Each structure stands twice: as structure tokens, then as C-alpha cells.
């Protein structure tokens, strides 16, 4: 089996054969997915990095890996400093680094199916200043040297019921057609896998933890569509479900189809479609309208059926979480459990619901120092025993047909220190501040982000990630465009007004490198709020997650009366909602956990 050093050397040899002086390796696929199939895990294969966001650049004499603040510790644990320089983003961009480090006159390759057009233009400008050239490579050179590269998943596509979706696919396509008419466009290209799943009311199993199928689509102004998906994935049920208004093609025919839209005004989303899509449309003579597709926002605003499904999924998942928390509280102090065994046990409890389709992401089962790595991924090599004196952090979620869950809780193993209690309580105060926020329509998430940070800022502390991300409806656990994050934090981005029906996470945290990590995460739904005397429409959050927050980590003296009131009310609701679903033993445990904080 080759080492990562061997793989880096093999890639450099391949680049030389292709007359290239460098290559850029992002962690994504041709749909710009965050979580990708095994065949697209090129960054992990090359470097050993197993985080969910990153990029590598390979030059003849040096190489660098770029990660944000969530992975500062993890990248150093997983990627050898002997061969790779660690570069933090956004402080340093990939294109900026290339401008500094690429040899003069160099030819730097990139895969146009793995980058946005905006990135290509930025990198091209940066390299031109150095007299270097950015070169599109039709066949990814990593694929040429990755001998054991898996094939794309053969999992079948499945129909998703209109009852769970809340709308038919025909209704959604009709709305898109009206949007196209309003924009004076003929068609829109859809590349994002969750967008395609939402529009056509289909799901799949091609990406671990995300129920999507590898496909592309073009929706036309007459509400018909062309769907590009491997024929082997199409069952008779799915064909009937899609109907005659959806023309079916092999996924490999997508590129040629883009070239056949000459004379058409075609919308392509600059943030959701790769550079190769724009290149093919341009080459084929289409007039490209670069703007956000109409699915992104429509998918984010959940309808009544999706909200009801999510409530049901949350209640089901809460029962599994309560059973797990009681188990870990009892078993961890015995010294027989590890990060992997804890993650496996939690999955067992979720499977016990009889409704789990998959986990919504690989559980972040992190004890002690690993808790300080926000997106830690446990492996056989990194697996630690859970020991007394540590904090055990578990960030996890489930995929159910009626909803997607995501929750983080922290459990002390033995007695926590005064510092742990202080930090946990400050995180809790920030969590409460966001949960009770009331804000006018038009507010963007960045305006709310500091509410969750203030209790930590007052102690000179902070966390290096956003406070909230969007969540899909039996789709991606990370969904845009909604987010709660300032632009200078990972997860930040273009300002997106928050709207009723959006689901987000509320997850402030604190991380002490080498010691412990804290994060408290619930999901929240944006709803209208009636405010007496208000002269504008107001919004607020309804908490969707009902699992007790560890009372042994709370310092009551740091809480205001209003914060204590929120916590007691929250725990009253937890007991009222989840208690009836439990047996007597687990209900008694939950009653103790949900008692007034005092």
C-alpha cells in the first residue's frame, strides 16, 4: 500500500508527463458538494486529511494544504509537515499563495469540473501577474495515479413521496418555469445534488450520509426537464414517478447537452455550477445568465409538511439521544469506552427507532483534546479511550425520511473543573441569547452572530467557526443560503436575509487546544413573531431539538434570571415531549436531568 509521500511523488511525476508545473486539488466533486462520494476523495487520498473542507496545491519543489480555523489542529495531526506546508484561510487564499510561490512562467493545472468560474478567473489573474498560466486539464491527473480509485456509487435513485415533500415535482417545475419567464430565460442548469433531489422529489445513496443521487438537470421554461442520471439507477417506480415531462438521459451526456443550447438564454448559478458548465454553454453558443438558481432559496424555506416531518424526526431522534446520554454517563467512568465505541452505540440507539436511513454525517465523537478539534473525525488510528477528568463531546445526527437532525452535547466524565463549568456556561449563555432573539425581516445571519459570542468575548474568548448553518429536509445537513456567521469566520459568506421557514443550527462553542472542547447545538426554525407596537414584520426562532443540556457543567451563578427561566422552560418542554416516549427507567433519568436549575 502506497504512503502519502509515495502518492505525492507519483502525482509530481504525472504532472511532469503532462508538462505541468503544479496542480490544485480541492475537496469537492463535479457538483461542488461539501460531502462527496468515495471516488471524489482525492484530497484525502493524496494528503491524509479527512476534514470536510480544504484544498491542496502541488508544485515541483513544495506543496501546501489550505484549511480554515475548524481544522487547525486536525490538519497537523493528519498531514505530514515533512511534505506539506499548512496554510490558513481566509487569511491566505489559494490564488494568493500561488502568486507568491509558483515559478515564473509556470503552467498550473486545474480540473474545470471541480472549481467555480470565479475561482478560475481569480487564480488566472493572480498567476498572470507572475507570468504563469492556469491550464484546464480535461482528465484529472490524480485519477491517473490513483490505482485503487473507487467507482461512483451504483446505488439506485428512489422516489420521495409528495406527502413528505409537501409539493409535487410538477408544481416545483411549474414555479421554476414562471421564474424563468420572469427572467426572460429559456432554461436553468441544476448541478447541486440536493437541488436536483428537491426539484424532482427523488433521493439516492451516492454520497455517504446525504440521500442524493449523482445527476444533473436542465429545467425549461415550459416546465419540462432533462434529467441526466445513469440508467442503471432508474427503477420502473422512479420512471413512473418522474413522468413524461422529464426526459431521461445518461449522466455522461450532460456535457454534450450543454453544447446543444445554442441561441438559448440559460441560467447557471455561479456558486453552484463548475467552470466546465459555463465553458460548455459558451462554446455551444448559449447566452449565459449568471445568477443564483431559483431552487436554492425555495428549498431552504420549508413548507408545512416539511416542518411537521422535521418535528417528528426531532422527537424520534431525541429519544435515541436520551438513551445514549444515560448510557454514556453510566459507562464512560468505568474506563471501557472509546470514541469509536461511543459513536457505534449512538448509531445503535438511532437504529433502534426503526426509522433511521443513515446518519446525517460521520459523528464527531471526541474526548479530551480531540474535543478541541471542531470537525474531528475519529478513525481506528486516532481513537482515544474516554477517561475520567475529560469532557466528551458528541456532535451527531440522523437521516430519517421525514427529516434531518443535527445535535451536539457535552458530557463530563467525572467531576468537571471550575474552568470547564465557566466556559460551558458562557457557551450556554450565547446559545440562549440566539435562541430568544427577535429581529426584523431583512436581517442577515451575520447581524445575529455576535449575540452568541458576547459572553465569551467578555472573557476574552471566542470560537473559530460560524454559529449556525442551514439544514435540509431529508437532504444535506449543511444547507445554504441561510447561515449565522460573520464574514470573517468559517461558514460566513454573502449576506442572506433570514426568512420564515428556514431551519438553522444554533451552535456556539469554546475550544481549549490540547485539553477539551465545548459546543451546544440545537436546531431552530425561523417563524413570524408578533411584537406589540411593532411598525414592521418581525421574526424569531422556535427551538426544534429537545434533549437535556448537561446540568453538571452549568455554573448557575453566571446565569441571569431570564437565562435560568429559559433553561427551566426548555427542560420542562424536553420532559413533556420526550418523557412519554421512554420507559420508566429512562424517564426517571430524564426527570432528574430536567429538574429546575436552582
How would the blueprint of this fold be written?
Elements: H1 4-17, E1 22-26, H2 42-47, E2 55-58, E3 63-67, H3 72-78, E4 85-88, H4 94-101, E5 107-110, H5 117-128, E6 133-136, H6 141-145, E7 158-159, H7 162-165, H8 169-182, E8 187-190, H9 193-200, E9 202-203, E10 216-220, E11 225-228, H10 236-242, E12 246-249, H11 254-258, E13 265-268, H12 275-284, E14 287-290, H13 295-300, H14 304-331, H15 339-351, E15 356-359, E16 364-367, E17 391-396, E18 398-400, E19 403-404, E20 407-412, H16 418-435, E21 438-440, H17 445-457, E22 468-470, E23 479-484, E24 503-506, E25 509-512, E26 516-519, E27 522-529, E28 538-543, H18 561-578, H19 584-593
Parallel strand pairs: 1-5, 3-4, 5-6, 8-13, 11-12, 13-14
Antiparallel strand pairs: 1-2, 2-3, 7-9, 8-10, 10-11, 15-18, 16-17, 17-20, 18-19, 21-28, 22-23, 24-27, 25-26, 27-28
Helix pairs in contact: 4-5, 14-15, 16-17
Amino acid at each position: 500500500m502506497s504512503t502519502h509521500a509515495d502518492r505525492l511523488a507519483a502525482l509530481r511525476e504525472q504532472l511532469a508527463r503532462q508538462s505541468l508545473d503544479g496542480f490544485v486539488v480541492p475537496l469537492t466533486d463535479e457538483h461542488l458538494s461539501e460531502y462527496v462520494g468515495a471516488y471524489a476523495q482525492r484530497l484525502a487520498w493524496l494528503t491524509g486529511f479527512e476534514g470536510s473542507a480544504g484544498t491542496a496545491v502541488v508544485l515541483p519543489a513544495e506543496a501546501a494544504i489550505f484549511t480554515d480555523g475548524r481544522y487547525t489542529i486536525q490538519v497537523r495531526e493528519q498531514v505530514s509537515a515533512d511534505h506539506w506546508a499548512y496554510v490558513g484561510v481566509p487569511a491566505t487564499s489559494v490564488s494568493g499563495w500561488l502568486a507568491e510561490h509558483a515559478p515564473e512562467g509556470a503552467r498550473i493545472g486545474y480540473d474545470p469540473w471541480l472549481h467555480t468560474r470565479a475561482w478560475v478567473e481569480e487564480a488566472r489573474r493572480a498567476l498572470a501577474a507572475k507570468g504563469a498560466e492556469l491550464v484546464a486539464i480535461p482528465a484529472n491527473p490524480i485519477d491517473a495515479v490513483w490505482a485503487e480509485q473507487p467507482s461512483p456509487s451504483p446505488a439506485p435513485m428512489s422516489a420521495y413521496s409528495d406527502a413528505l415533500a409537501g409539493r409535487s415535482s410538477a408544481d416545483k417545475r411549474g414555479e421554476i418555469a414562471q421564474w424563468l419567464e420572469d427572467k426572460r430565460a429559456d432554461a436553468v442548469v441544476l448541478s447541486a445534488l440536493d437541488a436536483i433531489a428537491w426539484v424532482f422529489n427523488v433521493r439516492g445513496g451516492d454520497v455517504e450520509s446525504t440521500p442524493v443521487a449523482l445527476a444533473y438537470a436542465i429545467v425549461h421554461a415550459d416546465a419540462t426537464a432533462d434529467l441526466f442520471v445513469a440508467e442503471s439507477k432508474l427503477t420502473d417506480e422512479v420512471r413512473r414517478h418522474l413522468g413524461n415531462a422529464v426526459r431521461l438521459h445518461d449522466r455522461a451526456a450532460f456535457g454534450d447537452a450543454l453544447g446543444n443550447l445554442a441561441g438559448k438564454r440559460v441560467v447557471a448559478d455561479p456558486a453552484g455550477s463548475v467552470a466546465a458548465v459555463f465553458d460548455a454553454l459558451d462554446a455551444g453558443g448559449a447566452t449565459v445568465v449568471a445568477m443564483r438558481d431559483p431552487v436554492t432559496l425555495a428549498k431552504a424555506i420549508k413548507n408545512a409538511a416539511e416542518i411537521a416531518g422535521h418535528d417528528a424526526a426531532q422527537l424520534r431522534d431525541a429519544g435515541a439521544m436520551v438513551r445514549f446520554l444515560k448510557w454514556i454517563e453510566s459507562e464512560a467512568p468505568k474506563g471501557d469506552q472509546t470514541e469509536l465505541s461511543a459513536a457505534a452505540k449512538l448509531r445503535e440507539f438511532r437504529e433502534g427507532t426503526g426509522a433511521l436511513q443513515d446518519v446525517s454525517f460521520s459523528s464527531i465523537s471526541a474526548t479530551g483534546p480531540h474535543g478541541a478539534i471542531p470537525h474531528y473525525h475519529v478513525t481506528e488510528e486516532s481513537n482515544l479511550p474516554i477517561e475520567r477528568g475529560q469532557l466528551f463531546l458528541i456532535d451527531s445526527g440522523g437521516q430519517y425520511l421525514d427529516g434531518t437532525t443535527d445535535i451536539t452535547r457535552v458530557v463530563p466524565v467525572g467531576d468537571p473543573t471550575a474552568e470547564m463549568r465557566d466556559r460551558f456556561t458562557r457557551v450556554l449563555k450565547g446559545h440562549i441569547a440566539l435562541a430568544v432573539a427577535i429581529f426584523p425581516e431583512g436581517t442577515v445571519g451575520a447581524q445575529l452572530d455576535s449575540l452568541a459570542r458576547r459572553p465569551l468575548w467578555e472573557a476574552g474568548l471566542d470560537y473559530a467557526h460560524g454559529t449556525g448553518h442551514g439544514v435540509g429536509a431529508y437532504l444535506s445537513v449543511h444547507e445554504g443560503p441561510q447561515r449565522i456567521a460573520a464574514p470573517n469566520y468559517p461558514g460566513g459568506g454573502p449576506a442572506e436575509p433570514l426568512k420564515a421557514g428556514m431551519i438553522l443550527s444554533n451552535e456556539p462553542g469554546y475550544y481549549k487546544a490540547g485539553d477539551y472542547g465545548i459546543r451546544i447545538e440545537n436546531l431552530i426554525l425561523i417563524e413570524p413573531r408578533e411584537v406589540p407596537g411593532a411598525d414592521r414584520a418581525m421574526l424569531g426562532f422556535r427551538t426544534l431539538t429537545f434533549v437535556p443540556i448537561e446540568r453538571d457543567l452549568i455554573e448557575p451563578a453566571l446565569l441571569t434570571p431570564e437565562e435560568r427561566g429559559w433553561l427551566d422552560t426548555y427542560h420542562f418542554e424536553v420532559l413533556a415531549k420526550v418523557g412519554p416516549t421512554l420507559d420508566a427507567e429512562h424517564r426517571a433519568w430524564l426527570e432528574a436531568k430536567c429538574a429546575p436549575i436552582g
